């Protein structure tokens, strides 16, 4: 166990400025950092882009010993390692992209018991390896194991939307090193998921410092655009993006301001999420043909092509304004000026929707989150779920967890359908309600309902296929689809 100090002994404000280049803490960051520095176990739930990473990165720098960060996302690990290295912090990662030589070097550093590494990012699977656990015991015996940070902690819970069985094995940390503080971080956890994480990781609820921040992102404008199979909603999107370019170009002050920031009036960075790989490519093609810079991004593309798309988009290069991606793109990529996130059809879960929409407006400026909702897509999503349920094994290890997962997926999808169909409440309020967040949800006309509820109702009546029609089509098996990709 590291030597404990009162957090007051550390000059965290100085480190915030010198290492992170930030002028002040955001609300509650100081309290979270202080609690973890004082050796408390911490649970932090806060909105997307709140600045959760700082809450374990800063303690890792000012404190003795090494902080182990467990993360499910390769992009997040590599991105954070790159940005912390720029700030001259000794940070390492062991994942599938780490070379054998680097891995050996990192392990030798741990083996000596007094590692120079301040932060080590690893996957949950890596934490299961005996060889790694042995090294942790060595570091711990030298009182150099400072804390364990579990990022995207909702992955621990079978009730969560992104369950990863290997996260459950992280219980090892508390079982083996009961005095080493653990900090769990997530943007998306319902009450049930929170309780499950705490129990699974063997944290003591009586001693745990719980920080639950608002889910609210007031700078995001949430909007549902209704569609049916009868109509191609591409035209609607094209009109939206062209109108945005035109508004910027018509405003000379804005155009000059963008030019001084080395940006173009037609550079409106955004992400379009689609569930199907084939849509990524055809949509990016269509946009390019209409003079809008767009690139596809999905796991089936060659690595070099994906890396080029990502780098061009992050750097605001001409031709790379919009990324058309399958789900999970952008998690862990901290691009500040994403001005819109579009869901081309209903996503798979409420939590997935919130996290993906949360890639927009990380600089705090107004940004749009548009979800194209059609009842035919809803029925496709439901048929996919039913098919997965029918296919799941009835016996064997892990069956109960899988069944629970599919049940949760169904509930989450149902909640998202209700969100899309709703014409009676502010969308910020509906999101808060889903996460049982009872705090304020300021919405200064930043959702379609608050902006014009009557128009929303009219658009819904005009835009959606009728339930009668969908029901007949369902009976004819018209909404059976291939796998999501
Ligand atoms: N005190 C601060 N002052 C200014 N910027 C900050 C501060 N803390 C964090 N940030 C910035 O906020 C952005 C979001 O931080 P971070 O990536 O940690 O978000 P997050 O809470 O993990 O969000 P998500 O769940 O969406 O990934 C980063 O650009 C980070 O540099």
Describe the structure concisely for a colleague.
Helix content is 45%, strand content 13%. It is α/β, with parallel strands linked by helices and 485 residues long. The structure holds adenosine-5'-triphosphate.
How would you characterize this protein structure?
This protein has 485 residues and is of the alpha/beta class. The protein folds into two domains: 12-212, Rossmann fold (3-Layer(aba) Sandwich), CATH 3.40.50.300; 220-476, Rossmann fold. Helix content is 45%, strand content 13%. It has 21 helices and 13 strands. It has helices at 12-18, 29-37, 54-62, 74-86, 100-111, 124-127, 130-141, 165-168, 171-176, 191-200, 234-250, 252-260, 277-289, 303-314, 350-357, 375-391, 399-421, 427-434, 448-451, 453-463, 467-475, and strands at 42-45, 66-70, 91-94, 119-122, 145-150, 182-186, 209-212, 220-226, 270-273, 294-297, 322-325, 340-343, 367-373. It has a seven-stranded parallel β-sheet with strand order 3-4-2-5-6-1-7, sandwiched between helices. Helix 16 (375-391) packs antiparallel against helix 17 (399-421). The longest helix is centred in the C-terminal third of the chain and has 23 residues, at 399-421. The structure holds adenosine-5'-triphosphate. Adenosine-5'-triphosphate binds next to loops. Belongs to the helicase family. RecQ subfamily. One of its GO terms (cellular component) is nucleus. It is an enzyme of class 5 (isomerase). This is ATP-dependent DNA helicase.
């Amino acid at each position: 166990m590291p030597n404990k100090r009162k957090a007051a002994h550390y000059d965290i404000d100085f480190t915030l400025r010198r290492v992170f280049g930030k002028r002040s803490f955001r609300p509650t960051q100081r309290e979270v950092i202080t609690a973890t520095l004082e050796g408390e176990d911490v649970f932090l739930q806060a909105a997307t882009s709140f600045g959760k990473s700082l809450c374990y990165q800063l303690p890792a720098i000012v404190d003795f010993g090494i902080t182990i960060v467990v993360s499910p996302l390769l992009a997040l690990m590599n991105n954070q390692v790159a940005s912390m290295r720029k700030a001259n912090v000794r940070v390492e990662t062991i994942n599938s992209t780490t070379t054998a030589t680097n891995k050996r070097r990192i392990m030798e550093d741990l083996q000596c018991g007094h590692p120079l590494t301040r932060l080590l990012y690893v996957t949950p699977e890596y934490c299961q390896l005996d060889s790694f656990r042995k090294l942790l015991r060595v570091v711990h015996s030298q009182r150099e194991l400072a804390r364990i940070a579990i990022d995207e902690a909702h992955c621990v819970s079978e009730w969560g939307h992104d369950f990863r069985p290997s996260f459950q094995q992280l219980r090892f940390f508390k079982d083996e090193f009961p005095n080493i503080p653990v900090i769990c971080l997530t943007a998306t956890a319902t009450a049930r998921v929170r309780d499950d994480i705490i129990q699974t990781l063997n944290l003591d609820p009586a001693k745990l410092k719980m920080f639950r921040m608002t889910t609210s992102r007031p700078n995001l404008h949430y909007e549902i655009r209704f569609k049916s199979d009868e109509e191609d909603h591409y035209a609607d999107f094209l009109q939206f993006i062209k109108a945005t370019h035109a508004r910027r170009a018509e405003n000379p002050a804005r155009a000059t301001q963008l030019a001084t920031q080395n940006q173009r009036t037609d550079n409106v960075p955004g992400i379009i999420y689609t569930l199907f790989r084939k849509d990524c490519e055809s949509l990016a093609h269509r946009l390019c043909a209409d003079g809008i810079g767009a690139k596809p991004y999905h796991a089936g593309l060659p690595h070099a092509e994906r890396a080029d798309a990502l780098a061009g988009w992050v750097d605001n290069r001409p031709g790379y304004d919009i990324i058309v991606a399958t789900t999970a793109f952008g998690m862990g990529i901290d691009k500040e000026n994403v001005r819109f996130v579009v869901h081309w059809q209903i996503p798979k879960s409420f939590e997935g929707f919130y996290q993906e929409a949360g890639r927009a407006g990380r600089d705090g400026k107004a940004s749009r989150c548009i979800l194209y909702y059609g009842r035919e897509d809803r029925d496709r999503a439901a048929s996919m779920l039913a098919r997965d349920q029918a296919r799941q094994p009835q016996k064997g290890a892990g069956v109960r967890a899988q069944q629970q997962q599919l049940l949760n997926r169904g509930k989450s999808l149902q909640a998202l359908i209700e969100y899309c169909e709703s014409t009676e409440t502010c969308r910020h309020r509906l999101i808060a309600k889903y996460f049982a967040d009872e705090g304020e949800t300021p919405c200064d006309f930043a959702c379609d309902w608050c902006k014009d509820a009557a128009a929303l109702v009219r658009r819904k009546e005009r835009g959606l296929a009728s339930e009668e029609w969908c029901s007949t089509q369902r009976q004819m098996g018209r909404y059976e689809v291939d796998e999501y990709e």
